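ingest -> fold -> write
write: protein_1
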Amino acid sequence: MLKIITKSFTDLSINELYDILQLRAEVFIVEQNCVYQDIDSKDKKALHIIGLKNDKIIAYTRIFKSGDYFSEASIGRVVVKQQERKYGYGHQILKASIKAIETNFKTTVIKISAQTYLKKFYETHDFKQVSEEYLEDNIPHIAMIKD
């Protein structure tokens, strides 16, 4: 079971921010062999959903209120450390992110830009595909909405 905490950007410690950026780079840049600008100004607007196991960050998402990323509330940078994926932590961090949006932003409508290969994963959380496939950072994605 993950210990899940939610923090604003300014509440993150330097070590937490470092560990989050390291995890994102490990998965999105190195593992997926994709050179792109991960560090963007959007982190400052987001709430950060952090999944801890033995006091180490092994899962993470960032969430946005309506208008900060899409016109709907949204979840992004969904990531679980590669060796931890078999334990279902992706489902736990996503459920916590959905609940955090409902609690903090008072909405159930959520839009995501999902890597296409994860379509079935997101469908188990009631997201529905609402776009054709498109390339984002040279990786196939689809827009999905949960309402």
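write: protein_2
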Amino acid sequence: MSDPDVRQLRYFVAVAEERHFGRAAERLGIAQPPLSRSIRDLERQLGVRLLERTTRQVRVTPAGEEFLRDARAALNAVDAAVRRARNAGSARPVLRVAIKADFDAGLLPMILEEYKSEPDGLSVDLLFGGRGDQVPALRDGRADVAILPLPYDAAGIDRESLLTEPRLLAISATDPLAARRRVRLADLAGHVLPDGSPAEAGETPPPPPDHHRSGHRLDLAQIFHLVEIGETVFFPPVSVVQRHTRPGIAYREVDDLDPSTLTVAWPETSRSPAVAAFVRVAGRVAAEHPSDGAWPDLPAATGLTL
């Protein structure tokens, strides 16, 4: 009997994620009968039951859960191969760099300038996203390399650390804690981070993509606005603080808060000379940049110097 094909994998993943044949068919843009037939054929090929069907719902079996994880990985690999092949074979191949705006410790402009002189370098396209978007972009082939802070799931990803910098507490200037010069995480009981998690946890890895507890995606400007009005607190690295000083926000040191480590990351299967050149340049630039707390004084508006 033949092995499952990509179409069958996509059909199964849609049904397993939607837990409903009708919704899955709508998502896939096909009629429900051929979708049902495809899933039955897949189960016959594998010799196991992947889904338990009732009149009201679809439940994924233990075997189905195992297959779902691997099917997703296989589809990601196929999508990545297609995207990378199309980029490499285009008339103007580019190096696609995934990044979250302002979370580059100020290194990106210098990296891009030096990269221009690399013999193996390509033109660069920047792929901006929220926190948590960069690693998926590497895995599915939308990006070739990324600059992002730890922590993140590095399965299938190679990386090098570029620099480490302190993180600070961003809190409304009207909050009683703003009267202190230093705080501890335990002092933040009752405060929440932009994703709605308790601030005293100090963020547990891996962090989710940027979003508020309402489920809406937030950019950095929106997060800082929520900090100003006292709705949330935030732990930005010093390099972000230096770019976003506001009279309504106080920045304070947190004695037991882990620092932020910035990395350059790429798929472990990459053999691209252009990626290797970018990683080398990023490392050189970072080596010339102050790190491990050797940062200039913050502007007076923060009420804090390091």
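write: annotation protein_2
The mean pLDDT is 87.
Residues 172 and 230 are 5 Å apart (CA to CA).
pipeline exit 0
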